[in-house]
Specification:
Structural class: mainly alpha
Mean pLDDT: 78
Distance between the termini: 85 Å
Helix content: over 70%
Radius of gyration: 26 Å
Number of strands: 0
Number of domains: 1
Low-confidence stretches: none
Length: 149
């Protein structure tokens, strides 16, 4: 099966064009779903760590989607031009795979960051307890300076 854009249109082979558009729709849906999954895990991590979720983070997701779909459209245009030579939309496939891999890495970072923050807090608390005499000295010094003023 050949999925050529321009030859399919020129030959009025609408079945092949329909198959090609289906492939592109699946690729675009994969990109969209990867961003939604990353958003889900990012919000989940924020809730667990009790980080306030603001509109800035959600706008960042919308900006990411716009950038990704802009890139996908450019790659699809390149595939249309290259359809005279190539049988499949290789540029769009490679772009979609790359975007999905980036989003998968982001999800894994969110999952890793969640456990890392707990470990960091434990390490900080241990260091505070180890150096409690120095901290008490610093606090008393700061209090004495404040009382002198």
């Amino acid at each position: 099966m050949k999925l050529l854009f321009i030859p399919s249109i020129m030959n009025k082979d609408w079945a092949h064009l329909n198959e090609l558009l289906t492939v592109l729709a699946v690729l675009y849906a994969c990109v969209f779903m990867s961003v939604v999954i990353d958003l889900f895990f990012g919000v989940k991590r924020s809730k667990r760590l009790k980080i306030v979720r603001t509109s800035f983070g959600y706008r960042r997701t919308i900006t990411k989607l716009a950038s990704y779909f802009g890139l996908m459209i450019m790659l699809s245009i390149a595939d249309i031009v290259a359809s005279v030579v190539f049988d499949m939309p290789y540029f769009t496939v490679i772009g979609a795979i790359g975007i999905v891999l980036v989003e998968a890495k982001s999800v894994f970072e969110n999952l890793r960051q969640e456990s890392k923050n707990v470990d960091d807090i434990q390490n900080i608390l241990l260091k505070l307890f180890e150096n409690k005499e120095e901290i008490q000295t610093l606090i008393s010094f700061l209090n004495s300076k404040k009382q002198e003023e």
